[in-house]
Amino acid sequence: GEIEHELRNAVSNHELSLMFQPKINLATGALAGAETLLRWYNPRLGQVSPGDFIPLAEGSGEILTLGRWVLEETIRQTAQWYRAGLTGGHCRMAVNVAARQLTRPDLAEEILALLTEHGLPSHCLEVEVTESGLMEDMEQARRQLKQLADAGVSVAIDDFGTGYSSLAYLKDLPVSTLKIDRTFINAMGEHQQDQNLVRTVIAMAHNFGCAVVAEGIEAPDQARTLLELGCELAQGFWFARPMQAAQFEQICRQPP
Ligand code: G
Ligand code: G
Ligand code: MN
Ligand code: NA
């Protein structure tokens, strides 16, 4: 299709950019980091949503080229902020890694080489993987994530709870963060059962030694409830929308 055709030249034509969505420490309100989100503007197609082009890129294999660009651009930008003293050990950048990237035998080496090249400490980076991404080739994923974690890169499970997968993988993987999917956060106000579900996920995460990020917080009462339930971190429109690098830099400059 036309989108796939145009996507093939997106990197070389400089059509990609990154947005940064802050993550907030719920107890203190301090900035804890950000998730980088890919954006694509094509002169013929206009702005194309990642919800539309990421699945196509996964199917065509182009996700490897896009994913490599996202990793390098995230690490380059974060290293620049790190050198400027804007993002310390408290501020970690999280990058989405697709299934097709996770099944590559040299993913971890590639990421660690980028960190070295740009002079960014490994603790400043987190990779976000989905449950379905893990399931594609569990053995390879385990190998790559272990190599990254051993080197100090954090591993987060994205969209947690939506994967219909067995939870057994949690005990075998070096996961440090669970991100509760926003559909559960959304439903929390309306149904007691959904609040119980979120409470249970938080307790389970803590039992595995993981921190919890609640995604898609859009209202202050959700933030209050999640703090009461022991959730550490929050990401959502109530706190901040995905923003350009220049705006994120401004936020980093503000005292907590
Ligand atoms: O930014 P937005 O909420 O529109 O993202 C829609 C979807 O695209 C989300 O599921 C998000 O995880 C995914 N996405 C955004 N940026 C990236 C990226 O750099 N890599 C991958 N693999 N997925 C991304
Ligand atoms: O699947 P992933 O968690 O990577 O998706 C991130 C996507 O979620 C981004 O596209 C971002 O724009 C979106 N997002 C972030 N915060 C909120 C929110 O509070 N509400 C909604 N509806 N979407 C959000
Ligand atoms: Mn994500
Ligand atoms: Na998510």
Automatic annotation (TrEMBL):
Residues 1-256 form the EAL domain. Keywords: c-di-GMP, Phosphoprotein. One of its GO terms (biological process) is phosphorelay signal transduction system. The keyword Phosphoprotein applies. The keyword Phosphoprotein applies. Signal peptide: none annotated. One of its GO terms (molecular function) is cyclic-guanylate-specific phosphodiesterase activity. This is cyclic-guanylate-specific phosphodiesterase. It comes from Vreelandella halophila. The chain holds residues 331 to 586 of 592 of the full protein.
